Amino acid sequence: MRDIDKIIMERRPIFCKSCSGKLYYQNGGVYVCEDCSQEEMDDFGKIKKYLDEYGPSPAMLISEDTGVSMEVIDVFLKNGRLEIPEGSKFFIKCEKCGCALRFGRFCYDCTKELVGQLNVLMFEQMGEQPKNHKDNKEKGKMRYIDSKDKRL
Description:
single chain, alpha+beta, three-stranded antiparallel sheet, two-stranded antiparallel ribbon, 6 helices, 5 strands
């Protein structure tokens, strides 16, 4: 587990600030106290609430107003939990080719390439040759049941 992931986990609320009751996760970064029904939010919940109230905003402003670090916001973008709005002049970069992304770590083309490389590596480790995709299509034809077929 990376250090930033540990920080995110440690910042999740466990006990209610009002009555010290145990919190349970509701959804969208919101936790509810079992005893007094008080709501608490983790970092994602704070960002979500901020975006619901103020709309799309620069990450720096979100960080300042919510107290959530830029590093945590970056993790949420890379994990696909947050998305940069269309038309924004700010983007994150694909970790492989450097093209502009609204969320995630890799663009579609790089993801496709990486999956192909992983497929080859997996088969090499198993001592097999990767199966040709065309061969699989020919063997796996869809069969339809003919209503006139008397074997039913």
